[in-house]
Design goal:
alpha/beta, 2 domains, globular, 612 residues, 30% helix, GMP Synthetase, Chain A, domain 3, binds adenosine-5'-monophosphate-propyl ester, 10-stranded mixed beta sheet, 5-stranded parallel beta sheet, 20 helices
């Protein structure tokens, strides 16, 4: 059923080999390496969303329902839309998942494989007593079983709880306790972290272990073998018909204060997943699509699973960690056409240098996207130079459940902007009373409630949910932004990150962008530091590029450079050089942590901190 393949070594794979003969070799002129791709690629023929203005004017979410499969009486199941319906639409034998493990072994699962495997897992879950509404979590690396499990949970009507595999025991405990999860699926390598907190989880009845040997499993502790469960389970399962407002997944995200909060999303979200994957990701029938985000984060769940599969797209997943060469090789080996990644990853690729880019073909790529944090114009320009493609930034959040603002393929990309609100989305910039501000004015980024994937509640925490609607008539994102005359949105920072220095409002993003334009600077994180004279001064923490020598002279030069590049009032009066910056697992620089360290304050929830 599953097609497992030993790796064709990436360097021997067809596309890579072909391409290597076409690009300059390491030995050839450096100047040539550093030059642009010869041809800036044009976006192919037509984008799925061809005419922004007309569609924006005419579109209603109601009309999008016709693209999805509903059961009688308006019932729906997101997993049915992602997998089951492809059994009868000609995609049964199409590869749904190209899964590359950390040893570069490739495993392929067709939609039919996924259908049968998820049916087996759904039956197994039901045999354990899992019912509609129960929370079933998974603590897994990016392996095919993660994808099978997600779909299976949704088919049963249970609520899927993604957990990032790098979480430690405390992070696990917070989430499993708060959600009162009944079942968790994990691996022998990750289980020890769970074992540490097991006695604090009275509601957790079953631990399903993928790839565990029978003897190592403690039946008394409810431990079961995934493989055995599936072996004894039927391949047929009647997908549960859900009310569109029934919960689909529960994803924890960190706020400014307190423990992580459980954001609840529902089956009806699939309408939003589907339409945005079509418009923003621009997925077509023959695409090979790679979303680098882990499904432990919202991008990996929505745009690594439900969105692309609702369109019947072939998805790539890679178990390994970031490595510039491995990533480029993967793109060439699987001929990835659409690539959804994050600014930090792009900055790290940029740091790895142009030469390594030009040692790969990357000719299959036709569309590149980025999300999760500000995408510096510098990176967009670099993308044009080395990939011959603009990088399409887009904006959304765990809470919004789908992309809301995007640089669409049919519109010109403005480097540094997040793009325009999608059809069906009314976004605006308002003051604290909800009054809409004119173009160019900085304010709160808000959205009119009612898009299909909007969070439905915060798990067991109505007051936290209500906070999102504290500005009457709007969903408050917690971000600050401004809009230009053409309706493009520009991110400034989290509402609580904006710096006010000597009465001037300064966005840390602007300063960070300016800093990384300096040739010595690889990464930058900027905070406001209290200052008697100016209220706040700007402090920058920077990571230097490899081989650059730190020193007072360089610091002064960078200050002067920023002053010149940006504005006299907006340069960092203090610069501290560090070996690395604290980042979340999804790649955002944790300014909050920099600030806490700087001021000697408690660091709060650091469960999403990326370890170096
Ligand atoms: O501050 C914004 C930033 O990431 C936040 C949402 O984070 P999370 O819920 O983890 O979801 C990330 C992936 C969807 C936002 O409030 N953010 C997201 N996209 C952008 C961004 N900041 C700047 N530019 C973006 N394109």
């Amino acid at each position: 059923m599953k097609v497992s393949e030993k790796p064709e070594k990436a360097s021997q794979g067809g596309s890579t080999k072909d391409s290597k003969s076409k690009v300059p070799s390491k030995a050839s002129s450096h100047v040539q390496h550093m030059s642009k791709r010869e041809v800036i690629k044009k976006f192919p023929v037509k984008a799925n969303l061809e005419d922004y203005a007309t569609t924006y004017a005419a579109f209603s979410w109601e009309s999008a329902r016709s693209e999805l499969a509903y059961f009688a009486g308006g019932k729906i199941n997101a997993a049915y839309n992602a997998v089951d319906r492809h059994m009868n639409d000609g995609r049964r034998n199409k590869v749904a998942l190209y899964s590359v493990d950390s040893n570069n072994n490739l495993e392929k699962l067709t939609f039919q494989d996924l259908y049968y495997l998820s049916n087996q897992m759904s039956n197994a879950l039901q045999s354990l007593g899992v019912e509609k509404g129960d929370r079933v979590f998974f603590f897994l690396p990016r392996i095919p079983e993660l994808y099978v499990t997600t779909i299976a949970i949704a088919k049963v009507g249970a609520v899927a709880g993604p957990l990032f595999s790098a979480f430690g025991p405390d992070a696990l405990c917070d989430r499993l306790q708060d959600s009162q999860a009944r079942v968790i699926v994990t691996t022998p390598a990750l289980k020890p972290k769970l074992d540490e907190i097991r006695d604090q989880l009275p509601d957790l009845e079953h631990v399903i272990v993928v790839g565990g040997s029978q003897h190592s499993l403690k039946a008394t502790a409810g431990e079961l073998s995934y493989e055995e469960l599936l072996e004894g389970a039927s391949q047929y399962f009647e997908c549960t018909q859900m009310d569109p407002e029934d919960p689909l997944y529960l994803l924890y995200t960190s706020g400014t204060t307190g423990k992580p909060k459980g954001v609840v999303h529902v089956h009806n979200d699939i309408i939003g997943h589907h339409m945005t994957s079509k418009w923003v990701l621009d997925l077509r029938e023959d695409d090979i699509y790679w979303c680098t985000a882990d499904p432990g984060w919202v991008t990996g769940t929505v745009y690594g699973i439900f969105g692309p599969w609702s369109l019947g797209t072939s998805v790539v997943t890679y178990e390994g960690r970031f490595d510039a060469v491995d990533w480029y090789e993967l793109i060439d080996r699987l001929r990835v056409t659409v690539w959804y990644t994050a600014p930090t990853a792009l900055r790290m690729l940029m740091k790895a240098g142009d030469e390594v880019v030009f040692e790969h073909s990357l000719q299959s790529l036709r569309h590149i996207l980025s999300v999760g944090e500000p995408l510096n114009p510098e990176v967009v320009r670099w993308g044009m130079k080395v990939f011959g493609l603009p990088i399409h930034d887009n904006w959304w959040q765990t809470e919004t459940g789908m992309q809301l603002i995007a640089n669409l393929p049919c519109l010109p990309v403005k480097p540094g902007s997040m793009g325009k609100p999608l059809p069906g989305i009314q976004a605006s910039v308002v003051d604290d009373h909800g009054v809409e501000l004119a173009p160019g004015q900085l304010g709160r980024l808000v959205v009119r409630p009612g898009w299909p994937a909007m969070l439905r509640t915060i798990w067991k925490n109505q007051p936290k949910f209500d906070e999102y609607f504290r500005i009457p008539g709007w969903y408050f994102s917690g971000d600050n932004a401004w809009k230009d005359e053409e309706g493009y949105f520009w991110f400034v920072g989290r509402a609580d990150d904006v710096i006010n220095t000597a009465g001037h409002r300064v966005g840390p993003f602007e300063v960070e962008s300016a800093l990384i334009e300096h040739p010595a600077v690889a990464e930058a994180g900027v905070i406001g530091k209290p200052d008697k004279e100016r209220g706040e001064i700007i402090k920058a923490f920077i990571v230097l590029n490899k081989g650059v020598n730190a020193g007072e002279e360089l610091i002064e030069e960078i200050k002067e450079f920023t002053k010149k590049q940006l504005a006299a009032h907006a340069y960092p009066r203090e610069i501290e050089i560090r070996d690395s910056l604290p980042k979340t697992r999804s790649g955002k620089i944790m300014r909050r942590l920099l600030k806490a360290w700087e001021l000697g304050l408690p660091t709060g929830d650091t469960s999403s901190l990326e370890e170096e």
